[in-house]
Protein 1
Amino acid sequence: MAILTILYYPDPRLYQVAKPVARVDATIRRLVNDMAETMYAVPGIGLAATQVDMHLQVIVIDISEDKSQLQVFINPKIVNSSGSQDYEEGCLSVPGIYENVTRAEKITVEALGVDGKPFKLGAERLLAVCIQHEIDHLKGKVFVEYLSQLKQARIKNKLKKRLRVTM
Ligand code: QAP
Ligand code: CO
């Protein structure tokens, strides 16, 4: 296992669109393990392959208190959504920034598991937010793009300044 390097907003590689996984093989399983290790190390509750510069449709999520419930979504697709909810979101690629985003309240997602088998899952509240947030990453979208241009500009400046301090 290995800790992968996370790309930070506004890195242009975060805007790349991820390709579907053709076959869930050993390479993909290793990517899943490394992504999980990376997410747990920070720690975070969700990570998309895009954020570690791998442009494949792979997501890991663990919203459990004790980090014991890893959920893996390969080639995920939202097939149903309803309602709306506001949630204060953060992102491993946008450290220290938390902002309210409005998304669907309930979703149904279809994906492949790490065993390569298709499954269908209903999700609501935090899990639904997290799945939508991570699927956005696979489409090249970061949550700050839902905010006003002014807020986006402020966040970019803040992160660039911080990068200058820490590097
Ligand atoms: C996406 O986000 C998410 O700023 C996952 O300094 C967030 O794991 C979905 C993190 C909220 C739904 C609701 C953020 C860690 C982790 C930071 C994360 C930070 C350290 C964010
Ligand atoms: Co994110």
Protein 2
Amino acid sequence: MSNFVSVTRDGGVAVVSIDNPPVNALSFHVREPLMQALVALRDEPSVDAIVIACAGRTFVAGADITEFGKPVQQPDLRAIIAVLETIAKPTVAAIHGTALGGGLELALGCHFRVADAGARLGLPEVKLGLLPGGGGTVRLPRLVGAVKALRMIVSGSPIGADEAHAAGLVDAVFEGDLITHAVNFAREIARKGGPFTPVRDRNDGLGETDLVGFDAEAAELAKKARGLEAPIACAQAVRNAITLPFDEALAAERALFLKLVGGDQSRAQRYLFFAEREAAKIPGKDIARRKIARIGVIGAGTMGGGIAMAFANGGYPVTLLETSGEALERGLATIDKNYAVSVARGSLSEEAKRQRLGLFKGTTDYGDLADCDLIVEAVFEEMAVKKDVFGRLDAVARPGAILATNTSYLDVNEIAASTSRPQDVLGLHFFSPANVMKLLEIVRAEKTAPDALATVVELARRIGKVPVVVGVCHGFVGNRMLAARGAESEALLLEGATPSQIDRAFIDFGWPMGPFQMGDLAGLDIGWRNRKARGQTAVIADTLCEQGHFGQKTGSGFYLYENGSRIPVANPSVEALIRAKAAEKGIAPRTIGADEIIERTLYPLVNEGAKILEEKIAARASDIDVVWVNGYGFPVGKGGPMFWAGLEGVDKIVARLDHWHERTGKDIFRVTPLLRQMAVSGSWEGVAS
Ligand code: T1G
């Protein structure tokens, strides 16, 4: 046997154990000995049944993603499953942890599946721009039915053991020693005798599928694909399982898989999978983490309440402080209401709501923060206010407590300097709604201690956030680049593009919405306040705000929102305002195409990202992509602004930025050295300083 696959015997039951840390990915060095073991055990007369299990924390969590894009080394997963299905004696997959992708497909190659009560099972390939390529699209429907299989495969979301048992995906759920239970299960099955039907020959789930209903559901799911190919291919593959003989459906799945795995979208999404994990790696792996048991949050408004919920959702007790009892009650009531909405939607049980609410302790006394290990302030975005808060925290927080600011823009070094413990100060820039949005920009100030940083990065992942460490500058990474992306928006309006045309160009690119819809959603008054604080103007948006048109919350902004609707409708008065302001400036309107809109918004976005790399505000280009995909809706199929620059052609981006710089003289188009160098070298690494 090999180090990665071993076989033990328990009477007539053979247990094949895979041991390929950390997640038992089906790498080639696992597949080869696994195949050998299965063939040997198939032909071994003394073996009555076979259990496939895994060591470590999880059953096989998928194919080895690092192998994609390289020549396939046989045996591949499909060959292993094909051998599994030639075994007449009962085969049982013993599932714990997360049986995902190729792992679940391996289990579907067995006659039976048993699971630990805490196990989760899923086919998340769609999140990598793929579809299950080991027969999952053809076997899963045969157990759970076509519609449930469609939902699982197109969403990529795993299900728990009990749900899997109810759906017919697993045959038994056990608590305690899974291997012993699995061996006894296998022994009993063997004793009862066969024949044992492979999943490929079963039809429990498919039966007489209502194809019309299936197609209707698939069409609904397709609407959410937003230009991504994988969800569509997933639905097609599951439909093939209904309409085609097994082997034809399997061949069709393979063809669809090969098309996806070689495409830019899957390359982008696989890149993002590793980029997110890379972003969470900071120098000094072996730094001791600080103990974090209780969280303090200052401010129970929208951000503070959301931040408090984010930690409570991760199981942490939270002390929530407000300036008055009334503000505190209002904040706690909002939190209660938010959880009630989740319960009503069915995404949270009443019991879980009760447990989470039980983690909150409200106070108006700073002294009550003395036992907190991490304190996050989410007070008014004003430096004087922040400094006052940190001055008070400095007096009450226990030594070693980490003090975090949720500021979106302000100088974290200046905030840290207002305390006697700058080594304990950093930024935790959550994105609203903080209990939902994945991205967490972790701002490392000049004096932030390495262990404080490492502690919050690990904590962020533990509460389900995607952490990216950023440096101190105005807007850090995301908001600073957002300003670059929006710098030309008003100029485009004054020169003849309408808000709808600009937003349409963004939506056609793959964004969930365009900048004007986004502004109306967030509230135009936020940007207005920021511009006034920095002595900047935006003639159209400022005028709208002066007239009280803040967007959805006032029923009109760049668009009209009739009767509280959230659907944007073109606003004739805005278009008249644009024309009038253009006339005042002597600008004759012209037709502006989508290409120009993208060049004057997304190319400066990439250029600003390159500047951020030059200034070492971000450690890696992929960190910037993680920020933009998880915080601002950059289309995952394009990998983020820096990855997309490679797809678009950095030389083309540089040439067009030079064109606009020559034509307008605007600094937003001045190509930064690293971008120019990238056009030649193809690498974002280091620029000659
Ligand atoms: N292949 C290679 N490396 C993997 C991996 C995989 N499938 N999954 C995880 N890793 C690495 C990861 O990069 C990290 O490395 C370490 O393991 C720990 O991961 C044919 C085509 C299982 C829920 O999509 O969702 O099967 O940073 O930090 O937070 O149809 O890993 O330590 O160097 O994420 O505890 C389908 C992907 C593949 C599952 C655990 N499977 N993995 O989360 O740990 S495609 C997936 C996860 C496929 C077949 C198709 C998570 C996890 P490093 P981690 P975690």
